[in-house]
Amino acid sequence: MRSAPLRLGVLGGTLDPVHVGHVAAAHAAARALSLDTVWLLPSHVPAHKAAPHASPWHRFAMAALAASEDDLLRVSDLELARPGPTYTWDTLQAFAAEGVTPSQIFFITGADAFAGIDTWRRFPDVLDAGHFVVVTRPGHVLPDAVRRHPAVAPRLRHTAASTRPEADDAADSCGIWLVEAETPDVSSTGIRQRILAGKGAGTDVPASVAAHIRRHGLYTISPAARRLHGED
Ligand code: ATP
Ligand code: MG
Asked: Which of 65, 91, 183, 207 is deepest in the core (most CB within 10 A)?
């Protein structure tokens, strides 16, 4: 009997820090689309993002700790190892260079991140470089303008958690899968602010990640103080 080809999830982001919302989104996507593995892919912090961030090494370490607690997850240094800004197009090309076909790749984003898809490098070609899995995120809806975009609308496919999309396995074309899931209402920004206010990360990050943040005093210095210390 021929074994089914691998189905690889990829969850990219600054993961500053990785939190239970990322883990839940990875699991929701894996359940809905029968993914074998989800790679956490810490990326460089884009220029437009807020300054208070942990170094790439700490962000990678935290993603690795989260992966070590969870059989579904792995961590990849693919984006951090590449200098300069992170483009999903380049990442998907790098997987292709490793022999992974577009129909085996499932690039997972929250609805907020996918809302800007038409500004991504090589849009709309990027939509043919892998499947996209758009997981619902509390407080964010996928704008109608994005759903109706002529490059997006024909590719949209709905899936309820726990259905196996057998019918589409045969098709080689890549889809944009909408996954309804109740992921926790947490964000890295909120976690950083709470730590800065002395309240800690609580249960919003996996236990080993919370211990790493405490041990290294991450996110305890304000952006202004970082600049004073010459850290930015
Ligand atoms: P920040 O507040 O710094 O932007 P974040 O919590 O949004 O951090 P990112 O690293 O920006 O985390 O997100 C990486 C990916 O994970 C994005 O596609 C984002 O939409 C998705 N994501 C993050 N949190 C959730 C969540 N609670 N539910 C579903 N998806 C999420
Ligand atoms: Mg974000």
From this structure: 91
